[in-house]
Hints:
heterodimer, A: about 40 residues, mainly alpha, about 95% helix, B: about 230 residues, 7 helices
Amino acid sequence: MNPMHYLYAAYIATWVIHGTYLGILVRKYSRVRREMESLRK
Amino acid sequence: MKRGFTILAFVTAVLLCFALYEALIVAPTEQTMGNVQRIFYYHVPSAWTAFLLFLINFVSSIVYLIRRNTKADILALVTAEVGVVFCTVVLITGPIWARPVWGIWWAPGDIRLTTTLVLWLIYISYLVVRRFSTSGKTPVIAAVVAIFGALDVPLVYFSIWFFRTQHPSPVIGDGGALDPRMAHVLLINWAAFLCLGWLFCWTRYRLEFLKREVEEAQALESLMEVRR
């Protein structure tokens, strides 16, 4: 395999991991916001 | 507070783009490994960031055990979680670098690799305890686990000094002979990942704080319903 593919794979993997974590945070945040809204009602 | 967060998010985004440009374009190509060596600009800063976060987790856990301070407990949880994210990056990018350079994905029995994997597993266990334990003593148990877990950090860091390992020698400090241009790019990438780690911690801290407030309000509401 071309060595450049390993470089791209490592960089993409890093961003996929960070992106996934960011997605998890956003999902948790919207769930907490929903719960806050239902408490206000 | 909101303005500070926006500024940090903007600075992080700019730094990450600049760091990527520096790592891929500006940094000189290493003579023996070629372009694969550029993985180092993501691998090493991620490891340093994870170590720093685990250190903060260690200090917060001690503070929690002494003072029973809720903020210290939240900070410990947050830094462990974000530290695991960065440690995961280390464990994924390391083997991707090792395959073309060593010819293998993983060197079984290598102390640096094994202790890093153990460190990751310890903090995963910490997060599992925090997530699934329903005991009121969970923060105390977690703080004790964190203190024992942190003992693995110096072992990971200094293992390349004291043991024979396949992992490359230190690149900065004693024994390090890194090209100054590479060191410059490495430090820019570390600054970018530190900002990203800080941003994650800030978001997660706020989220945990809100979550606990909601849980308290829900508990109060159910108590009032029972009384009615």
